[in-house]
Amino acid sequence: DGGLNISWDDGASWIKCNNPPVAQFYAVAVDDDKTYNVYGGTQDNGVWVGPSDYEASSRWQASGQYPYKSLLGGDGMQVAVDTRNNNTLYAGFQFGFYFRIDQSSGKRKAITPRHDLGERPPRFNWQTPIHLSNHQQDVLYLGAHRLYRSFNRGDDWEAISGDLTQGGRPGNVPYGTLSTICESPLKFGLLYTGSDDGLLHVSRDGGDTWTRISDSLPQN
After folding, report:
1. What is the pLDDT of residues 144-164, one digit of tens each?
2. Which residues contact 108 (CB under 8 A, 6 or more apart)?
């Protein structure tokens, strides 16, 4: 959970011990660069990116240049890369806090959907799902208890479904949330969602109508 730290002076200073380097990846993604890069959101250790041809060694301790670079802090979550330029990516940390990141400049913009005045706030899963359309990569999807879509890279959002879960429950983390999103690579607007309480839905018309397709599966 964040690694091992040692103090030799009663806590006045600390040494971070990353040997062996171990972590839990929540999610992994790749881009289309040559050589392609690997992105990962890690448990309590942020979001990282590094070259796919890197072979682990301690040589970086002498050069001072570790091949993997940190992109975000917190609990690193899902990553989506705009492969038109392999520079713009979307990543976040727990409970739906997502950002659009420009890798060349390091600039990032918060893009989490907001609810309207008078509405109940969205329920975001611990690992809130995102999905970047294969058909038009300005189109980004993000799941709360309902599905959100942006046509302009997360600057503006619209809800394209009602509640696709069995409803929320009180607790220390949100429950009754979407946990996965997929758009067919063959057809724009053919969308699937899965929730942490066992519901699967499909929309064949870009979110205008939804059909529950999990009733034949074991329930609850």
Report:
1. 999 999 999 999 999 999 999
2. 72, 99, 100, 101, 102
As a residue count, the chain comes to 220
CA 198 to chain centroid: 20
Q: What's the pLDDT tens digit per position in 22-56? A: 778 999 999 999 999 999 999 988 999 999 999 98
Burial class (CB in 10 A: 0-12, 13-18, 19+), 217: exposed
SS3 32: coil
Q: Could you tell me how far CA 173 lies from the centroid of its own chain?
A: 17
User: What single-letter amino acid sits at 57?
Assistant: S
**DSSP 3-state of 61:** helix
The pLDDT > 90 percentage for the chain reads 82
Which structure tokens are listed for 213?
Answer: 């397709």
Which residue is listed with tokens 């018309």? 205
Q: Is the pLDDT of residue 199 over 70?
A: yes
